Amino acid sequence: MRLFFTAWLVAGLAVAWHHEQAAALPLSTSSRWIVDEGGRRVKLACVNWPSHLEPMLAEGLSKRALADIAGDVSTMGFNCVRLTWPTFLVTNASYASLTVAESFRRLNLAASLAGVEANNPGIVTLKLVDAFRAVVHSLGAAGVMVILDNHVSKPRWCCDEDDGNGFFGDAYFDPEVWVDGLSKMAAMFAGEHNVVGMSLRNELRGPKQNTDDWYRYMQRGAEAVHAANPGVLVILSGLKFDNDLAFIRWRPAKLSFAQKVAFEVHWYSFSDPRQWDRGNTDQVCARIAASVQQRALYLLDRGWPVILSEFGVDNRGGNLGDNRYWGCVAAAAAGLDLDWALWTLQGSYYIRNGVEGYDETYGILDHEWQQPRNQTALRRIHALQQPFGGPGLAETTPYTVLFHPATGMCLVRRSLTQPQLELGQCNETEAWTYTPEHRLVLRDSSLTLCLRAVGAGEPVRLGLGRAGCAGELARWLRVSDSKLHLAVKVRSSFFRRDTLCLDVGADGRSVVTNECRCLSGSDGAGCDPEGQWFELVTSTRSPVIKSTLAQLLASTLRDWKTWLFTLL
After folding, report:
1. Interval 57-68: pLDDT, tens
2. What's the gap between Cα 39 and its chain centre?
């Protein structure tokens, strides 16, 4: 069952790079960062795993053994699971008293129950809450941290405006019952070292939502969790389906404890309906990224951690809006070095909206939970799983990484003997400096080397010395609304100057310059700029240092041989 993971390792995605050193738990906060007991930054690179639907069992246990799924989460590079749960699991006796088998039988899920019996026989007779605990234990045994996310009150798919689970006072959302449920769950897992956080409520919404009740009950829920389990992070969500935390700007939350509080935000393409497939993609990205910054991510600058606790795409690859959105959200996640939780792990559900075996196209696993639904989509998140900086990670002075969000790769040099520039794994990048003169210079080189364009459709190269770093072909401007296009100005005639943008070649790996796409609103909805988007990410991790002199001599000798051959 692990063959597909082994294939990734053979392809060069070493597990050693996926994981930082084990965190010294419990976690706390230091300004905008989440840190371990030693004060070292811990980047939460999580995946969502639902357990809040009607069966109230973590999805997929009818397809695979629990230990195998937990192990695969770790192997894929995730250090954390956002594990969802319904309030009624611990507050409603009619649910809490059920065994797994009884829960599935009452829903007439005979096929799924048979699958659980075959793959996880020890789970079948457990009470639902004990089965939930078993999932947490298994993740802990695999070295995976857990955030317990109170997703709904009454178990069901989330979320609708009028599903009774949206806001305090809704049909199933009694604030007293909710606080009681949070307290019970927090106390239950007070001794579990890998339970590092509790998210108070998923996607508050609906006609009753208001800020006064948000402060009244969210602050009370936070205090209840901290009193029952002072070791966990307490994560507060916003309004409007967790898209809005702007009100905190004027009225901060008041809590009796400190260094244990974080906020969360959700960001999907459908958070902004129809914009991605109808507008100029670059302008849409700029507009929506600025909006998310103003509504939620501004809290980072005010010293609060903000977790992007849900984001993701249709992994079948055919959703135009999702495909365009991905480059934008990945650029923001890298540029801000966010903690995050991808939606989602499951390839299918026992039942969702009345449909047995419902297929989850946003799932990173396929319908049968056997292999990735889209290996390319999974591969491109690996760079986001690693921290670029933070407390305890100042391994060198800050430098720039050229991150390509559409692929999750970075600009690297191919090898010591082949100095061509191409896309590669981000842990292979060297340290670049983006100067006030808009030059991109290799910082740690014994020679002065700059990124330089050659012409339209031509691979970029390293310019040498003052001459190689001079002129418009080595001056890289951030020319678009999104600030993700890096461009040079090229004189094509006496009267005309063209703008060439850094781009990915037809082979999907080489780095070239081409005419810029989507810089103007007149380009309309038909243009796709994602291949030309590069985010300049600041990092303090140890970069690769390559023997520049050896590369330069080898390149020079090849040039001489070519010149002599042409001459003769």
Report:
1. 999 999 999 999
2. 23
